[in-house]
Amino acid sequence: MSLLEIDRLSVGVPGDGTDTELVHELTLGLDSGQTLCVVGESGSGKTVTALSVIRLLEFVTPVRTTGEVRLDDVDLTGLNPNVMRTYRGHRIGMVFQEAMDSLNPAQRVGVQLVEAYASGRRDKRAQARALDLLREVGFTDPERVADLYPHQMSGGMQQRVMIAMALMAGPDLLLADEPTTALDVTTQAEILRLFRDVQREHRMACVFITHDMGVAAEIADRIAVMYAGRLVEVGPAAEILASPRHRYTRALVECVPQVGVRRTGGLPSIPGSVPAATEVLPGCRFAPRCAESSDRCHTEEPPLIALDNGVEAACWSPGSGPVALPDPRVLHSDTPKYALGQPETHARAAETLLEIKDVRRTFLTRGKGGSPFRRRARMNAVDGVSLDIRPGEFFGLVGESGSGKTTLGQLVAALDDPTEGTIVAAGQRHTARGLEGDARAFRRAVQLVFQDPQSSLDPRHTIGRIVAEPLRELTDLRGADLRRRVEQLLDEVGLPKTIADRLPSQISGGQRQRVAIARALAPRPKLIVADEPTSALDVSVQGQVMNLLLDLRREHGLGFLFITHNLSLILSVADRVGVMKDGRLIEVGTPDRIAAAPEHEYTRTLLAANPGIVPAAGSHE
Amino acid sequence: TPATKSADEAGPPVRGGNLTVRLAQDPGSLDTVRNTNAGTTYVGHEVFEQLVTIDAGYQPQPVLAESYKKSDDGLGFTFTLRKGIVFSDGTPLRAADAAASLRYWVENGSYAGSLKPVLKEISAPDEQTVQVDLTAPFNLVALVATSHGTGIRKEADIKAAGPTGIGRDNAIGTGPYKVKSWTPGQEIVLERNDKYQAPPGKSSGYAGAKNAYLDTITYKIVADSDAVLNGLQTGLFDVAEPSHDQYDQVKRDSTLKIGVEGAANIQYVALNHNAGSIFSKPEAREAMNLIVDKKAVMASQGVPDLVSASNGAFAAQSNKAMYSDAAKSQWDQSDPQRAKELFAAAGLKPDQTVRMITTDEFPQFKDALVIIQDALKKIGVNATIDSYDFATLMGRKNTQPDSWDVLALMDDANPPVPSYSDNVQGLDNMGYPRDKLAPLLTKYNAARTPEEQKAAIDDIQKFTAANLPTITLYSAKSYVAFSAKVRGYDGWGMEFADVWLAR
Amino acid sequence: MTGRRNRKLLVVGGLLGLITLLVLVLPLLLPDPDAPDPVNRLLSPSFEHPMGTDKYGRDLFARWASAGRVSIGMTLLITVCAATLGTFIGLVAGYFTRAGTVIMRVVDAWMAFPSIILAIVFAVVVGPGMLSELLAVTIIFTPYTARVIRSRVLGLTTRAYVKAARVAGMGPWKTLAVHVLPNTLPLAVVQCVLLSAGAMLIDGSLSFLGLGISPPTATWGNMVSDGRTYLHDHPTMVLFPGLTIALFVFLLNLAGSGLRTLVDPRARQLADRRA
Amino acid sequence: MAVVVLRRLRDLVVVLFVVGTVLFFLLRSIPGDPAQVLLGTKADPAQLDRLRRDLGLTGPLHEQYLTWLGNVLTGDFGTSIKYQLPVPQMILDHLAPTLTLAVLGIVISFLLTVLIVTWATVSPGNRVARFVGRAAQFGLALPEFWLALLAIYLFALTLGWFPTSGYTPFFEDPPTAIAQLALPLAVLVIGQTAFLTITMEESVLGELSRSYLRTARAKGVHERRIMVRHVLPNSMLPVLTTAGLNFASLIGGVVVIESIFVIPGLGTMLLGAVYARDFPLIQGGVMFVAFLFVLVNLLVDLAYALVDPKVRVS
Ligand SMILES: Nc1ncnc2c1ncn2[C@@H]1O[C@H](COP(=O)(O)OP(=O)(O)OP(=O)(O)O)[C@@H](O)[C@H]1O
Ligand SMILES: Nc1ncnc2c1ncn2[C@@H]1O[C@H](COP(=O)(O)OP(=O)(O)OP(=O)(O)O)[C@@H](O)[C@H]1O
Ligand SMILES: [Mg+2]
Ligand SMILES: [Mg+2]
Ligand code: NI
């Protein structure tokens, strides 16, 4: 008998007229002491599943649940709310993604910890346990930490507190919903380690939700893959990673970028996007995106059936064997189709496209919160950075959160003025006094792509109007010419012409980012600053967008300043990579060199912390 | 006829108690010369005494003066003071105090405006005598008696006067009451003046011996006129002057008594004679006179007990000495059709509006204008009404003389001399021929016999009717509402020095 | 859920429209609201005079209807002015951060000014009437609108599409007009409706203090004020116009919060809780 | 902290300066002046001019302004023209009634609001709780002056439970003082409570959608405890701000109530001062109200600092 048994669980929320089924007939089991990773793209129903197990979803929205969720043979779905409450915390603990939001900002964390113990009696035992747990999650001075307020702690510290809090009442089952997604790679690595230790120590079963196969590979005993509200594959972690069966799982595994693997020719991706929960698809929900789909896939929904090695998958044409992961050792010699990585071959090699010299940007910070009682402090978001980018070069900038990457990008795009130093982009000087010379010429030469495709498009403008905007402002194109150019641009980024009349809310995230890219291309720039253009996107779509950027670079000889925190990604595509920390550019080099021989200690940490699927020995012939 | 005190009110007078009186505004000071606020007058009459004042029949009676004498040529007046009078702070009254008070009054008082040109000197030849010398005959005693500003003060207090007059702290008089406390904006409390020396004679009007039965009189300052009735009904005040609008309600309330004041007002609308106004044209003035249905305006007050026709006269009909019906026939007319033609003749353009202004101080001003506005509308003339606070009205009238056509106000229906009346003098002297009026006024002042005076008044009245600086609407009396326990009071002039409270 | 909410909004809007229609049409059928008739002064409500007559004998029902025209008209006018000015200031203060700090300082001082006193001073300067009331109330409400709009604009300017417009070479004023303003409009509209509720209340207060529109024009506020004198004997003179204001403002508030639920998801939850 | 307070005080000075200056020129531009009010209709121009000169109202405007500014900077706020009393004393004399009304009004409303909302929050779905929301929305729509008149009609004129108007300092005659305050206070409290209730409801709602509640639930904390320990304290802050703002605006805004209930407060004083064109008194009074406004907001901020750990610790 398993500790947790989910049996044909369906979760629906009432929509306009009919219920929308967010999770459909999900069946899963988990033994005590085991870690189950639930993976899947955004919107696949991972969070809904977890919240349904602990029955927290019903506080947010009216839900209709069918099926059973059994914990030690007790059906949780049938419990009355008061009994269910005694299960929360004591039998099932939960850790959430946004640690900052998940803690009460107005209470000391000590108090919040104590509240989690035996219905919050503030006795000595509870306090002692709180301090013990704080020590266990890695705080050397638990007394001090217990006295802090959430906002006085870093994201990593908060997440540790959250874990300690989930442990306070000693649950048998721990649900963790993407507890590391908001964290830096380095911090993420620590928290993952902590998770493993804690779980082993307390002999808990753990459901760990992530959308990152790499993370799953690090800590899972078993992996469950969800897609569009369905469980599509479940099995032992090693099996799933080494030899995924469902076509979706295989594609997902393939998409994970790997350190040391050059992929300038193109990244793997899955075409299309995840269907909305309301979308009616008679067959396999993955079929429209599946390269191997047959007619049957489109008409009949595949059941979850047991395959070999304890793996179950819901696929009419499951694959087998390892996914063709490129071998890092081999692919060092991979030569890109176009030798843009070697500037010598380029005609304009001598000139520089972008020259950043001793640039500093100082902010007068006013602390957090909306209160007037803020102490001003100076903080150097960018602290003396010098950097050259050649025409047509793809320069990758990585660094942990808050290291100043975005700030630098904004300086280059002249959305902000440096406090000190000069930036020369496409022949235009930019100093503390602002842009010198023709601002329009500068805008024509330098464009920017933002991280969040959703917020970078005005929700009230049609796609056509959005793409036309820079053309109207920066070029003389009008009327039919303008329309033709817009169509051409949409075509260039692989979007149908018809999309021009739609609003941003009517297209998918990946399409939105393409629109943003089309807009950036419109004035035929020489340099594009791309600030984490793919980090808001799912892995599968991330590949599509990256490929588009790489294609465009090849076709137009565009220079890129590509900002990301994804080290594996940037190492696989960039010509040169710079690592930022605390506003300084601490290391610049080719991806090969950085991957092979990182000079800076911090770079080494980054590399080590990078989660990834290390191709299992022997899985590669 | 002015009411006389009825002694038949049950029981003998009782000493003691406090009377609460409502005042609309804090007068700020008791300088009855420079401060024209009604409250100043009310309180001033309890605190100060004049050389001569008026009795209930509006006849001059000596108070602080033992006697007064007019010289044979009519150019000199001698007032002899009563002996042994002291101010409430114990200082004896001297002739110098009286002379200084009169001089201060002539210098600063608006009432004395007509006296100024003929005044030669005011002197105090000895401790008991005040001498006033004139250059031309003038009805001095009547003016002194009627003017609120002639209350006698200490010379020292007058010397200490600041820019806005004699301060609150220097309000020392010889009257039956003295100021006990004064909380600005809230209340003024008077208490009995133990050093008061009553003049001979029975109490009548402001004159005669006052008994000062009340220990204290508290004047509560309540601006809101609608709170007055509620206050009376719930016992917050003993005495107040509600508005005409509230008359019916007061009358119906059995717990309240009504006293009609002897004094009356003439309600009028002044016509702007300046070139900027249509009323610079005689035709337009004539038209206005014809369009205003005075009877309707009077009726709209809804207080037939309190109003009476003015007949175009600048004084109330009860004021025998001043009333003249020389303008009656003109006043009685009402002929909208003719008015329309006259307006056209005056050059009133179809899109031109008649701009009427007034103040919110008393609702009856607006009432009159509303009726007039409706009458004008009926003959196709647009009229607007703007109602301002008093200060704005005055500022508007004086500094923007071209911004208005008609102004509704009221004036004392018992003017001491004709020249004092707005209905005679006009509100502005720009278009109105005051120079032609002046000889008529001189004639009045020089009159030796009542017949001569009457003839002069008739002439003045005719002049006014011909030039129409104002159109009088009706004459109205104010009334006082007081609780049943207030005794010995008939509503005469908010004067409480002889009033007592029933136990 | 959504259907019911919309239906409710429709009902509220319908009622508002009905009252407006009533005051637009009724005066055409009723006697002249300004014509005095001294004989019939101060009548109690009867079949002939549903609300009675006032001290000039004017029919109070006719006055109520024509007052509605003025009150609703004034409210609209004030709302448009205050919302336009406030939105403009809010836009500028929110978008141009440096100027914004200065502007907000001024707005603070502006709010510190006791509003009724301000209204009085205006009534005195310009003379009581439409213009002064318009000025005074506009001035009272503008800073509040400006604040609301500004905070919204501050939120919008962090949106990448505003930055994207700059990257696309668009000037600040054009960006304001093309990207910021349209996205503030829903909020501005909501603000307008809520503001009109406030405007109607303050219009009442001013008329009540005698600082509003000049006689004989009736407004609901000055009808209450005029009826005050007769509170004891004719309480209906105060009751009816006041009740109308209360009802109208209540409906406006409902409409405002109803509209807000369409614009602001948080408000939607509140509405659901109340439902 | 001290630095911050100092900075806010500097802002205060700026606000006062702006208010004072604007008002000065506004007042001089309005028709009518104190001389006319004092001397009445029949004064002759010479008398008026003399009085104006004596009051310092002649001469170029900018000179008058500089004189005024100089005086204010030396702490001399002038003398009321009408009452011949120093302006600060006049303000002090009229402060008590207004302050009593405003403070009691806000405090009672605040407490009522917290009670009502707490009750409605702890028992959601309750019919009465729903009614509260409705009632608050309706309360918000009631014109204050009208409510005051109805209250007078009903409770004073018809039932005779309370006096119609008046004000007595509390320590002079407590029963009378309470009786007189009851109606105006009730009117004030109804409006304020409606407003604060709506503010707090929204605030509670904002808190209800915050993720930390999910955490608390995941810990197995009882719903009631979640409301009482987490939601309500955290949603109090915006109400505090609103209450502070309201308090400040009440000081200058109770004119209507003061006038209907004949309460000799600051509003009445200012109204009277405007009518009398008592320039120094208006000037001083309005600046004082503005001062209170800013001061109360500063105090609210300080209170914030005590309550909100985010501010307190950093
Ligand atoms: N309260 C809710 N009401 C209605 N729909 C919801 C609700 N919560 C989630 N959904 C929908 O349910 C689907 C699954 O959401 P869920 O949050 O479980 O996805 P997820 O796999 O956790 O994605 P992510 O990786 O983005 O967290 C989505 O389409 C989402 O829009
Ligand atoms: N407008 C600003 N005012 C004050 N501080 C700022 C401002 N913008 C950025 N900062 C600070 O500058 C530092 C660098 O921020 P930046 O956004 O450049 O980091 P980043 O490397 O892009 O981080 P992330 O990976 O989280 O996007 C941060 O500490 C941030 O708080
Ligand atoms: Mg999720
Ligand atoms: Mg960034
Ligand atoms: Ni398939």
UniProtKB/TrEMBL annotation, chain A:
GO cellular component, one term: plasma membrane
Principal cellular location given in the protein's record: membrane
PROSITE patterns xrefs: ABC_TRANSPORTER_1, ABC_TRANSPORTER_2
GO BP terms, alphabetized: peptide transport
Domain of life from the UniProt record: Bacteria
UniProt entry keywords in alphabetical sequence: ATP-binding, Cell membrane, Membrane, Nucleotide-binding, Transport
A Pfam family recorded for this sequence: ABC_tran
Family listed: Belongs to the ABC transporter superfamily.
Protein name as it appears in the record: Oligopeptide/dipeptide ABC transporter ATP-binding protein
Organism: Saccharothrix violaceirubra
Automatic annotation (TrEMBL), chain C:
Principal location listed in the UniProt entry: membrane
SUPFAM superfamilies on file: MetI-like
Keyword Transmembrane part of the UniProt annotation: yes
Topological relation to the membrane, as annotated: Multi-pass membrane protein
Keywords associated with the record: Cell membrane, Membrane, Transmembrane, Transmembrane helix, Transport
GO cellular component: plasma membrane
Compartment list: Cell membrane
Protein family membership: Belongs to the binding-protein-dependent transport system permease family.
Name used for this protein in its record: Peptide/nickel transport system permease protein
Record organism: Saccharothrix violaceirubra
TrEMBL record, chain D:
Alphabetized InterPro entries for the sequence: BPD_transp_1_N, MetI-like, MetI-like_sf
The protein's name: Peptide/nickel transport system permease protein
GO cellular component: plasma membrane
Domain ABC transmembrane type-1: 95-304
Family of the protein in this entry: Belongs to the binding-protein-dependent transport system permease family.
CDD domains: TM_PBP2
Segments traversing the membrane: 12-30, 95-119, 140-162, 182-205, 251-274, 286-307
Organism: Saccharothrix violaceirubra
Taxon lineage: Bacteria, Bacillati, Actinomycetota, Actinomycetes, Pseudonocardiales
Membrane topology note: Multi-pass membrane protein
Any Gene Ontology biological process: transmembrane transport
First-listed, main subcellular location of the protein, grouped into a coarse class: membrane
Alphabetical keyword list: Cell membrane, Membrane, Transmembrane, Transmembrane helix, Transport
Pfam assignment, any one: BPD_transp_1
Location within or outside the cell: Cell membrane
